[in-house]
Amino acid sequence: MTEYAATLYGINNTLYRAGTPVNEPHALARLRVIEDEYEFASTTVGQTVAMGVPIPAGMQLVGGFLYFDALATSTTIAVGNDTDNDEYLAATSTASAGGAYLNLIASMGEPFTTAEQVTVTLAGATATGTLKLVLFVAGY
């Protein structure tokens, strides 16, 4: 086993070094990409859009990006699921074109026990423009 200069080790590295089996979804998993896009056309506040295919049970969401046009002054978009509309990204301003990284780390990385449909929810004002979502999921 190669030794590194580091004296601190991540959880999976510690398990590996001790000869303990590493939880498969957390190490050496296959990475898949789910991508979808939605065109808002004077879409009203409070609308929720299901994006991409549902993430199967056993897979885990490990990251993602949201890209958007300038949808309208005062608009925000949150990324979540059917039970928590901002599980992965809290309401983010979409008044100017840009992007955001799905950043709620406590909500990512654990395998889903049931299929998970990712959603985006519009708030603040009526919106017009394009939204793209890219999700990174891992598992076998």
Automatic annotation (TrEMBL):
<protein>
    <submittedName>
        <fullName>Uncharacterized protein</fullName>
    </submittedName>
</protein>
